[in-house]
Design a protein that fits this description.
This protein is an alpha+beta fold. It is built from 3 helices and 7 strands; from the N terminus they run H-E-E-H-E-E-E-H-E-E.
């Protein structure tokens, strides 16, 4: 992930970037000095909560957010399994940035998806193990019946 962030940071006007997971955890960062991990973690958590909140209100995925501040700009790209956050200059051309970010976002999404383990299926659903105990799992009770 770090090498992908380095490519994004190579775009003129970008001062740093970081990736956060679906729960807002900071996964990777390449930002300049002066920004500590606690601050990045707070921004990462806020970014994922904001994306989630907008999705629940609009009832569809939000592709990106562009937040403009006095000291710069924060572009947040939804990866569906997390977020890519990019710190850049206020006058940064977002369409120019997107030329690099579109490719990077796909690669980051693939990396994050490969880290997510499939959810365990309930017993007896879609070919999962049956809810009924196997014959070998049963014990005979003293009355001669099967105890489970």
């Amino acid at each position: 992930m770090r090498s992908i962030l380095e490519v994004i940071n190579g775009v003129t006007g970008v001062s740093g970037s970081f990736v956060c997971g679906k729960q807002g955890e900071l996964l990777a960062a390449d930002v300049g000095a002066g920004i500590d991990e606690a601050t990045l973690s707070m921004v990462a958590r806020s970014a994922t909560l904001t994306m989630s909140g907008i999705r629940s209100v609009r009832r569809r995925w939000v592709q990106s957010l562009d937040l403009d501040y006095a000291g710069g700009r924060l572009v947040i790209r939804n990866l569906r399994v997390g977020c890519l956050c990019i710190l850049c200059a206020r006058r940064m051309s977002v369409p120019l940035l997107n030329l690099t970010v579109d490719v990077a976002a796909r690669k980051l999404s693939d990396i994050l998806r490969s880290r997510v383990k499939p959810a365990a299926r309930p017993a007896g659903v879609d070919g999962g193990p049956s809810a009924e105990p196997e014959e070998s799992d049963r014990e005979e009770s003293s009355a001669g019946g099967a105890a489970y």
